Amino acid sequence: MNLEHLNALKQLLSTPRKIAIIPHKNPDGDAIGSTLALWHYAINKGHNASIVSPNDAPKFLKWMPGADKILNFEKQNTQAKSCIGAADVIFTLDFNHLGRVGQMSELLEESSATFVMVDHHQEPSDYAKIMYSDVTMSSTCEMVYHLIGLLGDVNQITKEMANCIYTGIMTDTGSFKFAATTSNTHRVVADLMDRGAEGTEIHHRIYDTNSPSRLHLLGCALKNMVILEEYHTAYITLSQEELDKYNYQKGDTEGFVNYGLTLDGINFAVIFIENKEEGILKISFRSVGDFSVNDFARKHFNGGGHTNAAGGKSEDSIEDTIKYFTSLLPQYQNQLQS
Predict the structure, then answer these.
(1) Which CATH number fits the domain that encloses residue 163?
(2) Domain limits at 180?
(3) Is the pLDDT confidence value at 22 over 90?
(4) Residue 217 to residues 187, 221, 224, 259, 271: CA-CA distances in angstroms?
């Protein structure tokens, strides 16, 4: 974070503010962890702060300290709108384009509040007056830890905040295995544990509370996996019918795409998930090495993200989308071999 923006933020927060903290739609562990950690910090500093999420978070994140205080824009619409309308400061965490908040975007665009962006994705837009954008960071949660430090308050990180930050770092790094996990990430995690973060318990709550239907859905996904050895690529499809058959709940497909990368010789993994309600296919891309799924998603599937992890979407059928996707692979064959 550059000095000008840091000083502006310090000045902004020097007096009590009405703060709205916003994660992206379909929030994951990093989005919920970072917003909750910042919410705890703001409340402890005497601000009137609230979190407004575009929609619900997965069940496996609802144990997090303060999660029951998050306003769901879909279910608590009047209260959520009032909170955003009254805010004089709006923090947006773990996204960098207002389009990532779905139906909330128009409300945010109309707000006269001062926007503060904290995010680690590529190619940020310019809606925020104060920006802390760093694509080298493992997670937005790691950035929140550093932000609190830059504000001179690292010693005010409580056990509740430490648990929230640890959760986001752990989930966004694939339990510390992704390339963005640096030695500094581990130093941050060590400090969080010294401040009370319960690593083993957090891992259990996130990864060891599956329902039988989720494991059956995973079995279906793995059965659907197609391996294209020539292109070092594996992809999975899940239709709406299959989701319904296995009683899909929000968050159930989290991490499924990564199974493709556990195969020897696979450098590119994709999952296509049908969403009849929204009329789209939701797509997740993962890679290892230098192949940029961010560039691939932006160019071909109206998406983006990180070099090795990105998302996109298609309005075509599964069959037509797969046909288009596979037609693209020959032009990337050389990149996918490395």
Answers:
(1) 3.90.1640.10
(2) 3-207
(3) yes
(4) 36, 6, 11, 13, 13
